[in-house]
Specification:
CATH topology: Rossmann fold
Number of helices: 8
Shape: globular
Number of strands: 7
Largest sheet: 7 strands, parallel
Strand order of the largest sheet: 3-2-1-4-5-6-7
Distance between the termini: 38 Å
Number of domains: 1
Order of helices and strands: HEHEHEHEHEHEHHE
Structural class: alpha/beta
Strand content: 5-15%
CATH superfamily: NAD(P)-binding Rossmann-like Domain
CATH architecture: 3-Layer(aba) Sandwich
Length: about 260
């Protein structure tokens, strides 16, 4: 097969949680540009439509805290498309990220959306992948799931203060869930990999940008196209022998 054909997603159906955020927009673009039939889903349906319609994608309302809502998404995509080939677990809540001194109920809310829903939506999607003995699950983690916090990034800014451990905990757990799921689903020819983005440029304070870039070998924050290549690679046959991988896309930040 021609190497460029290996990267094509024509004939494949992809489901992406979140699609209107900083990561979601470029992931949606990447999947659509590679030829997939793309469904993007989150709570903000109007924001999703603004991203989906120009690209020919489908927008679907999803509440990750609701098992019923997750089931409705998967069942609708399967009914309309007849298949699910790619699942990108991208949506996340940061409801408990502000600080450590919060109630257990706040942490439980975060864990339900960022962890329990990850298990459930992945299980439901792979039910359809098993029918075709093929599929790719791509988890969107974070460099914060691979390292501890670095207070020097925040020198000269309002700062990290006392950050909550929840995001580090959840994204670190996602890295190992990826390994577990790859082991569990490999016999069905379903691959599971995780992408760990570094800091994405989003009008951060000048001091933060300067500090972060100093701590990053490539000397810059991620841009609006930096996730597109790895997403298409992992979704396509170009990565057919890769599973259980945790791939930093962070300019080398975690190499130090």
């Amino acid at each position: 097969m021609n190497v460029m054909d290996l990267f094509s997603l024509k004939g494949k159906t992809a489901v992406l949680t979140g699609g209107a955020g900083l990561y979601g927009r470029q992931i949606t673009e990447a999947l659509c540009e590679a030829g997939a039939d793309v469904w993007i889903a989150s709570r903000n349906l109007e924001a999703l439509k603004k991203v989906a319609e120009p690209l020919g994608a489908h927008a679907f309302e999803l509440d990750l805290a609701s098992e019923e809502s997750i089931n409705r998404l998967i069942d609708t995509v399967a009914e309309k498309s007849g298949r699910i080939d790619v699942l990108v677990n991208n949506a996340v809540t940061r409801c408990a990220c502000a600080r450590w001194d919060q109630s257990m109920d706040i942490f439980d809310e975060s864990l339900r959306i960022n962890v329990s829903s990850l298990f459930h939506i992945t299980r439901r999607a792979v039910e359809w992948m098993k029918k075709n003995s093929s599929g790719s699950v791509i988890n969107i983690g974070s460099y914060m799931g691979l390292v501890g916090g670095n207070p020097t990034n925040y020198e000269g800014t309002e700062g990290m203060g006392t950050p909550s451990p929840i995001y580090f905990f959840e994204k670190g757990g996602m890295a190992n869930f990826t390994r577990w799921a790859a082991s569990e689903l490999g016999p069905f020819n379903i691959r599971v990999n995780c992408v760990h983005p570094g800091g994405l440029a989003n009008n951060q304070p000048e001091a933060f940008v300067r500090n972060y870039c100093k701590n990053t070998p490539l000397g810059r924050l991620a841009g609006r196209n930096d996730l597109k290549g790895v997403i298409v690679f992992l979704a396509s046959e170009a990565s057919s022998y890769i599973t259980g991988a945790n791939i930093p896309v962070d300019g080398g930040y975690t190499a130090r």
